[in-house]
Amino acid sequence: MGHPPLARTRKRLTVVACGLLGLVLAGGTTAANAAPKTPPVAAVKTAKSPPSQPSSPLSPEDAAVARAARTGQPVVVPELTTETDLVTARPDGTLGLKRSVEPSRTKKSGAWADLDPTLIAATDGTLRAKSTTADVAFSGGGTTPLAALDNGGRKLALTWPTPLPTPRLDGPSAVYPEVLPDVDLKVTATEQGGFTHILIVKTPQAASDPALADLRLGMNLDGVTVARDTTGSLKATTPEGKTAFTAPAPIMWDSRTTPAPAEAQAKGRAGVAGTASASSYAVADGDVVPADEVASTDERPGAHAATAPIETAVTADALTLTPDAGLLHAPDTVFPLYIDPAWVPMIDWAGIQTWAQEGYPDTAGVENTKFELGSGYQRWGTGNHGLERSYFQVGYNLNGRLDGKHILFVTFNVTQVYSAKRGCPDSNWPVYLHLTGDNIGNDTDWNHRPADKGRWGSNSFKGSDCGGDQNIEFGITDNLKPYPNWEVLTFGILGDESKTTANNGLKRYSRTASDTYLYVQYNTPPNKPANLNTTPSPSRLDADGPAAVKTWTDTGCAPAGGEGWIGATNGNTGVRMNATVSDADNHLVANKFSFVDDTTQTVILDEQHSPFVASGSAVSIATGPLTDGHRYGWYSRTSDNLDDSPFTAACYFRVDTTAPAGPQVTIAPGDAAKPTGAERTLTFQSSDGGSGLVAFEYAFNASMPVGGASLVTADAQGRAQLTLKPGMWGTNILRVQAVDRAGNRSQTLNHTFYVPDDPNAPTVAGDITGNGTPDVLVVDGNDLRMYPTDHGLLPRPQPEGSVVAGDGSVLASTGPNSPGQSTWAGSLVSHNTGPGIRTDELFAWQKGPQDNGTLRIYRSSLSLALPPAQRGLLNNDHQYFKRERSVVATVPRPGCTGDCAGYNALDWSSVKQILAVGDADKRTDEDGNGFGDLITIETDVTGNGSLWFFHRDPGGDFSEARMIGGLGWQGITLAAPGDINGDGLPDLWARYPSGALYQFPSRLLPDGTPDVAALGDAGAKSQIGTGYTPAAYPLLSTDGNITGDARPDLWTRTTDGSLLVHTGRAPAAGTTAFAPPIALTSSSTPTGTTTTFTDGTLVKGAGRAEVFVVNGGAGFHIPDEDTFFRLGYTFDRVLTVPAATVDALPHIPRDGTLLREEHEANVYLVRGGIRAAFTSEDQFFGLGYRWASIGIVPDHSLDPIPRGADL
What is the pLDDT of residue 1146? Predict the structure, then answer.
């Protein structure tokens, strides 16, 4: 059994868009005939379009999604908020759009506020609602207008005929006491900016007051005119005919709480005195009416109240209300009596909610606002029983707002505030959601209701006694799938429409704006992958046209027919496919790689997932082994674990893993005898059976670079010609390798040839500057410094382009040009000349903590072997020795000849001293040219040292090693004075730990060939000096004849850094071979250098595999290859530095560094060794930071940095 159909109104009454806050009771006056219907789509707009996105790297939606994922809490997207719309980012990465049918918030002082009609006193003395859609103000007392409405500049104000007393406030209401004797006036603001004003007549005496017979209210209009229609409703219209405000026909009611006698007999069919009518309120469930439904209030009639219409008359400046005299003066009228007109603004851009009653077929539902909207069978009225239906129109994909979105689910939600069936549960009385025609508007009534287009869903509410008001949702996701472009949805809610006395399915629904809404949860599919490429990248070098220097074309992601070639790769991984993945909602995203052998039409990888990474990250995956000669294609698409992007176009490449045959080099007849500066023509020849031979790469008197080598293209027969003009006499080295279309390179051929020059041209051992005198070279801190000399010692020459210090020394080479590319500290250096070499070559050895020692041979920047554009200090950063001018970049360890006990055949790690001695064994090539040889002291595992001689071959490397001095050489210092005994061979000086200095003379064998073993023959040595202890002279060496007196001189460095020259002389009895020292410079204390790197630099220690990225001066380890490629790095960016330099990198960045881990959204600022997180984007940008300043590091890299409080 049910409860009364006319449920109590709620304290908050709101007006839907295009609807009215009316006063028509279900059993009251009828409305006017229907006017023409409002156009269905034009009547519905959303609030103002959201503003354009700011120039932030993240869109507002992206930023909100990121914050939601980080915090685990929903985050509102404020930029998308409107009067009806609220968009919320969810922690799962999706977004939810809640769109109310009518406005549920408004913007006040630039900020959104939920609608709240609570009255507050304004500074101008009026009473104003806190936040309503249209503006409404009430009098604070006195002669100010009773009520003033403003709907977008269209205004209507009503004035009470006498001064008003000061009101008392109660939420949205103001009560003016005793405006007439025993008569109070109450005004109430509504959410949409309308109001009701009700006279509360307390006694029969008050009802007899003549002032109450005709109430004349002053009316002030601006932009509208007011007229009465035939039903008594009032409409304020603009000059364009648009309704700005409306007032339903007013009614009045008394406070009767018991049925009239005739009503009790006939169940509500008898009339009462005058023109009033009594409400017949028969009920189900035992005909018991709850107490709160029986009594009338100032908001609505009670169950048994008598009601009557109020007549209205309108002039240009006044509105006259004439209450029903019969109800005013009837003897059975129960007081208080309520007289209730109302005004409502017409909001013309929001959704519509209305209802239709079969019992009042010509009454517009929007005008019956005394009660909530209903559905089902209303079977309790007197002559007004019948069906009720509620209708709603709300925007869906307005202005393409949801274009391109994946709609996960959609619900339409309403809130029940009354059920005729009050018990629990209420499953017997379902409600139904129907799609209807769009033709609903301000005057929709039962006779003009929209066409029914079928049921879209059903649900049921619990009874009214089960926990109060209840929200219910209708799932309509599947219904909408065929119609993604529908801009407007129009629904009807229907109940049980069986017309039986057992039907208790009548429902009523809230008019509060936020209670009726459409909810759409959606996801934006990720973007199509970008930056498709492979590592290594396919490349192509076409051989069309004449032989000439050309460059490689990186084909990248090429279509079929335009693909490039991949050469020899790692047999296990093949190549890596790379792509950048991104998502508009800032989800974590992955790439689905597909890889196909196009030759065999075999799918190798079918949408293979990469790891999920932050939006905007690079991802990669290995193809696996590749087959020589096959063509492959690959493509991909992005996944955010909810949706996939479209596929990319396919990328193709071909594979050739076989290198060309080694090249052959021949010289044109007669060119071999040409001197320096003359052209020589050389012919290269090779072949390739795979992708085809296209070019030869070469390096002349220089190491073959890795990439960027000079190139000459081959003809169809695999030949190419090169014309050179050698600038250096003596041995020249041309390094050549054949290259095919896939970039495969043959073994490098070191082709040496001799170039004649002026036989009288001088070459002086030890001469670096080219002035004909030896120069002193020392390691000084991080740099290599030189002390130029002439035969008078002073003044010292300063070669053009030299960087000269105050002590006269010249910068010879900076730390980045050292073998370890960081510092010369700890290096062993020696310089000497050779046949055809007018400025010394530099031999340099350096060992880091993790490597095995590197030996490198440098050519002087002044060498005539360099082309003019590369020659001279001004073309070499004012340095004599640059890495790119190396003769041999990394000297390989040669095999051993003879006694090889203790010889380290693997590397140069056993070296303790190196000495460039010139051509010591006089072994020449076919052109009669010799080469500069090397002597070293090396220790075995027990620490015992031996003396070793290394023969240098025409290619610049060493072809053999030979022991020339057995054990016992540890701690001895070597020096190369040149030829002292006149046999044309270099001699050797050796300083023993005792400070004694000995000379080891060279000698010839009986056949006239040099005996290099003599340089280590302790039995033949002679003492030439004493007192040169390592404690007094940590550094001792010779560069030959410095002073110009035909005798080699000795130079030393003292413990205070002073450089001394000990002039050579003929030794007399009891004397040494050297005069007392003279100063070359004093107190040249070595200075240290701190290595710094810019943010984002990739470094690794020499001999190590670990790679670090530097940010804020600190090093962050990259844990694996996948992370390396995912962060967008390539190996050619990795800088190799001494391992000690990497070990010295701090773990805590400098203050002010901005950092974020790869898969974490938090951005941190390092201050005082502690990281602090930013709490919002606004805070980040407000402090003046930019996205580009953030260093991205691998996950967990920030764990060693303590985390402090958020900023």
Answer: 87
